[in-house]
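User: I'm new to structure prediction. If I give you an amino acid sequence, what do you actually give back? Let's try with this one:
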Amino acid sequence: MTGETIAAAAIEELTRAAASLRNVTLNVTFDCKLRCVYCPTISPDWHGVDADAAFLEEMLFFIRDNRVAEVSFGMWGDTLAMPDWYRIAEKLRPLGVRMNIHSAFNRLLDDAEVDILSSFSTIMMSIDTPRIAVQKEIRKGLDVRTLIYNLHQIRARALERGERPRIEWTCVLTDRIAQHVPELVGFALSNGIDHLAFNDLGQYEDLNHGLRNVFELRGESLIRAIDAIERAMALAQRKGLSIHMAFFDRLLRLREAQLRRTNGEVDGSVPPASEFDDVGVELIPGKAAFHSDPLPAGKTRLCTQPWDSITLSPEGEIYPCCIFNRSLGKAVDRQEIHAVIDNADYRSLRAQLLTGDITEACCRNCPITPAVEPNVLASEVRRKYEEAESRRNGAGELSDANKDFPTPRVRTGHLLDKLKARLPLG
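Assistant: Good question. You get back a string of structure tokens that encode the predicted 3D arrangement of the chain. For your 426 residues, that looks like this:
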């Protein structure tokens, strides 16, 4: 099915933004002390930047005035690297906004942080392996023991409050930890984790970290790695652990191809190695290569984020999602957000998704969203419009007792030249 099955008038109507955003991802800082070896922030030339108080205040009023359903802290930088970050969350709590956070939790939390985090809806923690030394090789700033202590501090406080945050672990799958994936699943189960998500390794340019994507392996090392991953997936299923690995079927196809080649069954039915090559795409915060199945002809991506979600940089640059490669506009106050999310670039992106004629490479080759018929996406967009209209009936107010904002650390400095054009840091 092609975009021609959706009337042009319908496409025009469906390119408007939702009346109320479902999610705002708020990156209060680009700073990060985790120092993952595969991330550009590992460079000694990296300089973070924090959002200033005036911008944060405007964003909080936007969230209140527009009945935003949930706020997610951090995807690019580490929220916990900004002093007093929790005071922003304290202002959101009286509004009844669902709050989420993604962090490595690589330092001990203080009491105020534990208290506010115990009221969050979802807490995503970055961890790749329970093996302390191996984890430090990959994420140099993370001690697994600190993460686990923070986890139980938050959970204990939540029990006192009668709350239960959803705890998720996120892992970047590499050749270094593939054999340990069954251990990670067992570790997650023993710690009562609700969900475990695996991300593909994005290979950034000019980073020589020595890690390999599992898709790059061949021969027995490939087979052993995928066998271990399969055992881990089976363990999670047996024990009821929710687990997500969008590229798992692709790994199984690669193993099948390797086994057939090992057995001498090389014919036209065996996928060539090139089928599993990297797809290079410009991402934030630089150019990365990852593995993704090509988008079939006549299909589109099942993604509604350009309609009902925004990702904000510390300086107000607006992105449709956390992996989109360029800003679609900048807002320094609450009114400018409305103008940006209904501008020509945003409407063009929505039209591309609705028709399946996707020219944005990071959307066409997205490793996260599934391929569907365009009319399936159109139906989902209509449902999101209905949800947004429903949200407009609610309201909230910022607490008068929480008007002070944390004083930001304003930083200047020379970023890596190769990243300057891609990072909204000026």
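You can read the tokens as a compact description of the fold. Here is one thing that stands out. Residues 408-426 have pLDDT under 50 and may be disordered.
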